[in-house]
Design goal:
There is one protein chain. This protein is α/β, with parallel strands linked by helices and 386 residues long. 57% of the residues lie in helices and 11% in strands. The chain is built from 13 helices and 7 strands. Helix 1 links the parallel strand 1 and strand 2. It is elongated, with a radius of gyration of 29 Å. It binds guanosine-5'-diphosphate and magnesium ion (MG). The site of magnesium ion (MG) has 5 residues, from loops. The site of magnesium ion has 5 residues, from loops.
């Protein structure tokens, strides 16, 4: 039978956990196609939550406890718990579940249904029809949660997922295995673990579903996650967004191309002092080609880096491809010139910039040339490794 572990991180939840465990086990009786157990991850709570759990363990054989020596935050608690659940308890999926009765436990079967339908990650969602946040939340907390989620959607330009910060989730082992290595090295604070886990799962193409639930405010104990996390959350999503842009191949290609153009211009000055224009121009172009070749190899296509023995022949190919793009630029310019009768386009780039139609053809030529370059680089020179 398929196995699910409900992971409950606790910090000073003694009273809550004593009430929750029996109710949870009771609710498992209604689920017959999954075998469920519970794992509490306690950070040696000062209120001795772990002692209460140890006592309950005598009664419930499917209750497990991971005890951390000191408080290391929610993210670390979940990573430890997931490692234990998947590798020691051989779970197929795990739940993230709060100890404070905020998460409607009657929804657990709906999460499992989604998993059975083929989803990899199921989010409990407060912001889809059927979900909700407590009426008695203060305006601050409402605004923080609603606005926070909206900002995340905008920054990640993903409006399909509505609840990014919620802590009620069901996660398949495959998702954990592929996301976990990247999470180990990160430091999380408050909600950033949830956001980080989710964005990584999405970027790896896992199927995400949302199940609505009405979040219930805790009646016992205190919340550990408060307003002080707003800043960290904002900084975190900016960082993630920036990393995605910086790691985008097209972006890197464009930067390398821009650097190449600057290399060409600045070395042209130098070569001009030594050689006639044609020779100087050729040398300057070749300097740019060398720069482009090196940086594309080290950065843009770092995942497909060439072997040393490949470099000479690939460099010749690279020159031919770059030559091809110059031919394309000239041809676009020529066609433009032929059609409207402009002066030769690429001989007078400075004047061109001031002439509208000329500009259009120059930009069109450069863009088409860039398309060609990117195509040639990614399909011939830095071919995808099988
Ligand atoms: N093990 C562990 N559990 C934590 C930590 N911080 C929060 N929790 C637990 O995580 C769950 C959610 O925290 P809570 O304070 O209710 O956050 P809120 O619902 O956003 O206000 C609760 O079960 C907490 O006891 C931590 O540092 N370590
Ligand atoms: Mg809570």
């Amino acid at each position: 039978m398929k196995k699910a572990t409900v992971i409950i991180p606790t910090y000073n939840e003694r009273e809550n956990i004593q009430k929750l465990i029996p109710v949870l086990f009771d609710s498992f009786k209604k689920i017959d196609d999954w075998k469920l157990n519970i794992l509490v991850v306690d950070d040696t709570s000062p209120d001795k939550t772990y002692q209460a759990v140890k006592k309950l363990k005598q009664k419930y054989k499917d209750l497990h406890l991971v005890l951390n020596k000191k408080k290391a935050g929610l993210g670390k608690a979940y990573l430890k718990g997931m490692d234990y659940a998947f590798n020691k308890l051989s779970a197929d999926v795990v739940f993230e579940f709060d100890a404070d009765f905020s998460h409607d436990l009657s929804k657990i079967p709906l999460f499992l249904d989604k998993i059975d339908q083929g989803y990899d990650l199921v989010l409990g969602s407060r912001y889809i029809p059927g979900g909700g946040i407590p009426n008695n939340w203060g305006l601050h907390r409402k605004l923080f949660s609603v606005l926070g989620n909206f900002i995340i959607m905008v920054v990640f330009s993903n409006f399909k997922i509505r609840d990014w910060t919620g802590g009620y989730r069901c996660i398949k082992k495959e998702v954990y295995n592929s996301v976990e290595p990247e999470l180990q090295s990160e430091r999380f604070s408050g909600y950033t673990f949830q956001i980080g886990f989710l964005t990584k799962a999405i970027s790896k193409g896992y199927k995400v579903a949302e199940v609505p639930f009405k979040f219930v405010d805790r009646t016992i104990g205190e919340s550990k996650l408060g307003a002080e996390y707003i800043k960290n959350t904002l900084l975190y999503i900016m960082k993630v967004r920036l990393q995605t842009i910086l790691s985008n191949r097209i972006f890197k290609f464009a930067v390398v191309g821009g650097v190449g153009a600057m290399v060409q211009l600045s070395t042209l000055f130098f070569w001009r002092k030594l050689f006639p224009f044609q020779v100087a121009f050729f040398l300057a172009v070749e300097c740019a080609v060398v720069s482009n070749f090196i940086w594309n190899n080290l950065w843009t296509f770092s995942d497909r880096k060439l072997k040393t023995i490949q470099i000479p022949s690939k460099f010749i190919q690279f020159n031919i491809a770059s030559g091809g793009s110059i031919v394309i630029q000239q041809m676009v310019a020529l066609v433009g010139e032929f059609a409207i009768g402009l002066f030769p386009l690429f001989t007078l780039p400075v004047i061109l910039l001031t002439v509208d139609t000329g500009m259009t053809y120059a930009v069109a030529g450069i863009l088409i040339g860039m398309f060609w370059n990117f195509f040639a680089y990614s399909t011939f020179i830095w071919r995808k490794k099988k």
